[in-house]
Automatic annotation (TrEMBL), chains A, B:
Transmembrane segments: none annotated. Keywords: Amino-acid biosynthesis, Cytoplasm, Glycosyltransferase, Histidine biosynthesis, Transferase. This function is generally fulfilled by the C-terminal part of HisG, which is missing in some bacteria such as this one. One of its GO terms (molecular function) is glycosyltransferase activity. Required for the first step of histidine biosynthesis. May allow the feedback regulation of ATP phosphoribosyltransferase activity by histidine. Belongs to the class-II aminoacyl-tRNA synthetase family. HisZ subfamily. Pathway: Amino-acid biosynthesis; L-histidine biosynthesis; L-histidine from 5-phospho-alpha-D-ribose 1-diphosphate: step 1/9. It is found in: Cytoplasm. One of its GO terms (biological process) is histidyl-tRNA aminoacylation. This is ATP phosphoribosyltransferase regulatory subunit. Its main location: cytoplasm.
């Protein structure tokens, strides 16, 4: 038998957001979406649930074990609750917006739900928002998207931002160019991803030397680029590094305060990416604020097209913001002419009406947590 | 085997909202929440899923057959996907905000999901937003909440509003006061709810006469109130009618353009209500825009308190609005100095950057659907 208080408990990893925090999160999401809209990204709003196969197609496949499923009585088919919105946006681009001109700029925001939280992200439900720039494999698309994330994060007040850049396909490109066997490629790739110095010491030949240099390159962008610049790399890998250097150089111009790092060997969680990957962090905040990169949207459909985008996660993003500001509330005693309220609201006050007569309007206002009192046609601040 | 296009199909009653429509809906929800906040309602954001028993407690019980369920692997207990947010708000008031001063003003907005749509509301997922004013059984609470819904709907541009008022407990109160037996009470109540003239013709005595008058009262508020006023009613029922008349009179003052009707015998869908119930409609729009009233929040908890509130449904509400306005987009050709873009955005333009050189910037801008072109430091409108 559950007691009322037990009944009220929420499942692990799910929570109620209250009052100023809830409003602050909503306002923050709106500001992010405004930043996206201001750069031509059109909002799409896919449903919370859709057929399982749709959600699990392409990059979504990795989400299978994180996804809640429900049976749809209408179709007798399994539906999933989305764990990520990116795949839904790709689906929309492929179907309903198939004939819209490219590049297609789409933005989204919505709740996602996961069966299990992680160490860094214990929440099982959070708001994901972001953009996809679909149908361009240009260099400029990286610049636009990385800077847009930066603008958006800055616009909502996140300070002390850092950006980590990676090239998940660099090591495969190097190994491919040097005709390295599959097993060695795997060892090098995994060791670099895990930053395992010991493992790399045993790798012989040019690839061993390059791998050790790549490992030492991880860190501040200027140092990393110097090291990458000094490496003798196969052409495709060299192009990747040059593109990365170009991004870093533009960022230094446009966002000089941004702390940029490079991790050339990282690929975990970026398995579907095909170019430069990036992750934003804020100093002292657990978990990344967002990540992005380029991938082949709808690759399995034979109509693949390059998409560059990012997702921001509101759980960690809200942790990077200062406390929610308290609103300016004003108590309007019972019996006040209703016509007196709109002008107060136009001045930015939130009116709290007395529903019954109170002996001491000031005390009643304080009891309700109001910061001002409307009395005799005047606004009195309450201490 | 599903073809790509089949895979992309969404389950019945679920849909993607695109571009201007998606943005317009989001902007509309924000404006509604701004209206609620301006009158002191604090936002709460409960999770999409929680334990089944929580969602089904109290008025939520009626939602059982509409609710998708998932097993929570963490607790090994069933969770439900919410079909309605009102009960979650009551839960928050009862638990985390138990010690907050009353009356408590809470607002909310979020997606709800239902197993099956209805004729009037075929969508299985839609946004519900609204308020609850908890812990006051005052008359003024009705006035505040009914007018707040009116203000909010008007603020987002819904025109031609009508408001239907009902007293779901009026007939029980009359029958109780006249000591009418249970079976006759049931017959009268159901016949009035169904507006079944024939059934009422056979009801004898004073209750028969009153019931036929109540039926004839349904319609325009002034006519309805005249009829109600002429009835000889038991005291509790008389008080209800007087309260209703007072609400109508205030509305006539404050919102003279609002078309008000009264249906004194209606109770369907209002089973949990304890006072005046109200429903907003817009002329020519299928389905109600929202409904509200008073109910006993957390009645089963032995800590019941009166709550007055309403919910608005964004599916029907969006049908009551004019078409979404198209944004002012401006094409900024490839190679434009990035520093030239922010001033354009500050003027309200949405910048769309060229990612690669185009031979004819104007043609490229048109191809992308832009309405303006930025060239040689000037804004040129495109025909």
């Amino acid at each position: 038998m559950l007691e009322p208080n037990d009944k009220a408990l929420l499942p692990e990893g799910l929570h109620d957001t209250l009052a100023n925090d809830a409003e602050y999160e909503a306002v923050t999401v709106n500001r992010l979406l405004d930043s996206f809209a201001a750069q031509g990204y059109a909002r799409v709003e896919p449903p919370l649930v859709e057929f399982e196969e749709s959600l699990l197609s392409g990059p979504g496949a990795a989400q299978s074990r994180h996804m809640f499923r429900v049976m749809d009585p209408a179709s007798q088919r399994m539906m999933g609750v989305r764990t990520d919105i990116t795949g839904q946006v790709a689906r929309i681009a492929r179907t309903r917006l198939k004939n819209s001109p490219r590049p297609l700029r789409l933005s989204y925001a919505g709740q996602v739900l996961r069966i299990k939280g992680t160490m860094l992200r214990p929440e099982r439900q959070f708001v994901q928002t972001g953009v996809e720039l679909i149908g361009s494999d240009s260099f400029q698309a990286y610049v636009e998207v990385i800077l847009l994330a930066h603008d958006a994060l800055t616009s909502v007040g996140v300070g002390d931002l850092s950006l980590d850049l990676s090239l998940p396909l660099l090591v495969p490109a190097i190994c491919d160019g040097l005709a390295i066997d599959e097993e060695t490629t795997r060892i090098v790739r995994e060791a670099l991803n895990a930053r395992d110095v010991g493992e790399l010491e045993n790798v012989e030949g040019a690839i061993g030397e390059i791998a050790r240099q790549l490992l030492s390159a991880a860190g501040r962008a200027d140092k990393a680029l110097d090291i990458l610049d000094g490496l003798k790399l196969p052409e495709q890998a060299r192009n990747m590094c040059d593109e990365l250097a170009q991004v870093v150089s533009i960022l230094a111009d446009v966002a000089p305060g941004l702390h940029v790092t490079v991790d050339p060997g990282e690929y975990q969680g970026l398995e579907f990416q095909t170019g430069i990957g990036f992750t934003y962090f804020a100093k002292g905040v657990r978990g990344e604020l967002g990540r992005g990169g380029r991938y082949e949207a709808n690759a399995e459909m034979d109509q693949g097209e390059a998409a560059t985008g990012f997702s921001l996660y509101l759980d960690s993003l809200m942790r990077a913001l200062p406390e929610a500001p308290a609103p300016e509330t004003i108590y309007v005693p019972f019996g006040t002419d209703l016509a007196e309220l709109p002008p107060l609201r136009e001045q930015g006050y939130r009116t709290v009406q007395g529903l019954e007569p109170a002996n001491d309007a000031g005390a009643e206002a304080r009891r309700l947590g109001c910061r001002h009192l409307w009395q005799n046609g005047k606004i009195s601040p309450l201490g």
